[in-house]
Amino acid sequence: MSVNRLQAFIVLLMLALTCLRAYAQPAVPVNPPLPDRELVIATREVPPFAMKRKDGSWHGISIALWHRIAERLHLRYRFSEGTTNQAILDGVAKGTFDAGIAAITITAARERIVDFTLPYYTAGLGVAVSTGEPRWRAIFRTLFSFGFLQAVSILLGFAMCVGFVIWLLERRRTEHFSGGAKGLGTGFWWSAIAMTQAGAAQNAPATLPGRVVAIGWMIASVIAIAVFTAGITSTLTRRELQGVVHNVNDLRSVRVGALAGSSTVDYLDRQRMSHRGFASAQDGLTALQAGAIDAFVYDKPLLIWIVLHDFSTTLRVLDIVLDTQNYAIALPKGSPLRAMLNAPLLEETESDWWQQTLFQYLGKRQPD
């Protein structure tokens, strides 16, 4: 009996020590404590994500999202206007701002100085071009384009080859093809005339082999000239109606503009596309409208908004996306807000309210 009592006493003692140890350890909070002060949230005007009303209040896609999240968490805050995304990021990194929200893209360089929440909008780079091009400029660009010069060179090369063959077949039997350089020049000249279907009967080949080659060349040249003419006409019409840029590859051969210091510049540099920087998107689009550049590359949702509101009659946005970009809320390194914001941010962006908000400002819903 004494042994059993001793064993029971030891078991009870171990249980008591375990309970005391658990009681002594502080409870780990599920979430970090809420800041007990008014937060300073940096933003700037980037329609339609952040826009300032005349009374100084803010609205837009990003602002509406922040309002919803802050209401869920019962946060007190005020907005502070920044000039550029870089200025906002610098302020967030220094702790001047508790968060930055507008249309801030997540990049590797920015991740080194600030933290980001989960992305709330997936966008990409768009390309704005002129709605049309004057006919004289389209003709000039077409006539001096690489494709045009290449086609002309190929036609002339075929003509010279045919002229050389005609000279070889006719030089000993036909007087005007006889001789060395003079006869060869006559062969080239006749071949060029036959290609244009003008005066081919003059100084024509006299031998049967020469005439067979001549007939084949005249038939082939009719087809070649018709295809060449149709291609030139189609190019001129397309340039006049749609401008000089139709896809990503065209950007390498035209004058491109971008917002200086933006992630767009990083993308263009990686793609080795020469570009000209502008202080604002408005300046770049104004230059595009004036013909100083041929295309302006910028975040597509922002580009669509500006073009529709200020340049709808002269500019248009191509239906292509150059690069995928994610917008998120910027936070200071190690900020407790990051863990607090992610869950309500996901809940809001997965709701019907978010789709309705996107449709309200952009006229479309974001794909899942």
Strand content: 5-15%
What is the second-level CATH architecture of the largest domain? 3-Layer(aba) Sandwich
Order of helices and strands: HEEEHEHEHEEHHHHEHEHEHEEEHH
Q: Tell me, what's the shape? A: elongated
Number of domains: 3
| Rg calculated over all Cα atoms | 36 Å
Terminus-to-terminus distance: 71 Å
Q: Please state the average pLDDT score.
A: 80
CATH topology of the largest domain: D-Maltodextrin-Binding Protein, domain 2
Number of strands: 13
CATH superfamily of the largest domain: Periplasmic binding protein-like II
| Class from helix and strand fractions | alpha/beta
Q: Residue ranges: pLDDT <50 for 5 or more in a row?
A: 22-30
What is the makeup of the main sheet? 6 strands, mixed
CATH class designation of the largest domain: Alpha Beta
Counted by DSSP, the helix tally is 13
Approximate helicity band:
40-55%
